[in-house]
Design brief:
Layout (H helix, E strand, L loop, with lengths): L2 H11 L5 H42 L3 E5 L8 H8 L5 E16 L2 E10 L1 H7 L6 E4 L34 E5 H7 L6 E12 L2 E15 L4 H4 L2 E5 H7 L8 E6 L5 H12 L3 E5 H4 L1 H39 L1 H9 L4 H37 L6 H4 L10 H18 L1 H8 L3 H4 L4
Parallel strand pairs: 3-8, 5-7
Antiparallel strand pairs: 1-9, 1-10, 2-3, 2-6, 2-9, 4-7, 5-8, 6-7
Helix pairs in contact: 1-12, 2-10, 2-12, 2-14, 10-12, 10-14, 10-15, 12-14, 12-15
Subcellular location: Cell membrane
Keywords: Cell membrane, Membrane, Transmembrane, Transmembrane helix
Membrane topology: Multi-pass membrane protein
Amino acid sequence: MRFEFFIAARYLRAKRRQAVVGVITAISVIGVAAGVASLIIALAITNGMRRDLQERLVGSTSHVDLMRVAGDGIRDWRSLLERLRGVPHVVAAAPGLYGQVLISKGARSGGGLVKGVIPADEKTVGDLLQNVVQGSASALEPLARRATPCADGTGPRNDCGSAVSREIPPIVIGQDMADTLGAKVGDGVLVTSPQGELTPLGLVPKYERFQVAGIFKSGFYQYDSSYAFLRLADAQSLFSEPDLISVISFKVDDLYHADRVGRVIEDAAGKGFQTTNWMEQNRELFRALKLEQVVTFIVLALIVCVAALNILIALTMMVMEKTRDIAVLMSFGVRADQVRRIFLMQGLLISVIGTVLGLILGYGLSWLGGHYRFIRLDAAVYSIDYLPFAPRVWDAVIVAAVSLGVSLIATIYPSVSAAKVLPAEALRYE
């Protein structure tokens, strides 16, 4: 063991002649631990929010969407769809027809965004139809495809939950929308489209009755409260757009290169088309999360700075308490730079102990929060219904470096003061 480290550790373990020095030292350790733990937990929360929102956004929607620049829809889409499926890095593609509607059941109603889909294709680019918790999305399939068992093996899929009438077209809605409407599987809902029909009395909204075939739950409020799915043909009939789609959705092999693949798809589609990707659609959200992470780090790092000030005070008082001991050591031949290193190592020991305790506490609480999800959130406000935690190793490296660096800066003044002690002056009256 180095001489300086041995003396520094001995000073920390020794009984204090001034109890306040020991109290301030303990407070310094606790302060560093609290600051480090707070930083780890805060970064774990922001990382968890970013991760969960990204996973749900990317899982629930496509990576790239192709639309007409003029916004008048895509005709002759079948040949275009087959051609674009061969674009490099494209894993899957699916047609869709979007439209804003009013969905009502009795006196209850709510606005929604319906999407006409071909279920077999839609499931390859998004997960919403695979997250059906009541009923089944198989009612959206052609009749020939429905004679497959339910997930629980109880019978044909069109018999999962309540049977779907052949006369009334099916609809699959989100869990929060179902709660708003008070709708259950098998209930009828009225879907009203503002893209109405022109009559002698003027433009009259078009409405059609649908039967709830399934209810999905993605855990993402934006989708669960406003999304609904129809068969593509039923959506075209509702919006009076025969054989027209509004978007072709794509899934790519690397979601972080969606912008690059989107440009290739745009070029392959030809003039009059444009693409958007999941990063562009949610840029402001992820930018806000990044800014929140930076601000949180700066604010909580002040706790470590306060703990560093306690270290400075504790070491300064210890230098005053140990002035005679320092003078004796220097009279025995200990150099000034060795005395300086003794107090530098003493501050480093306080910082290391506090940092290790803080990392253990921070990662322990983050693991408990992520595993048991005991902090619930309002999904209508935060888009997810629990507080996620995602601690990363890299965060521990950054937090530990900041903690140790700030603490070492705080030890400079007292260690330099200790090295300036003059043995003859200190021992004059001993």
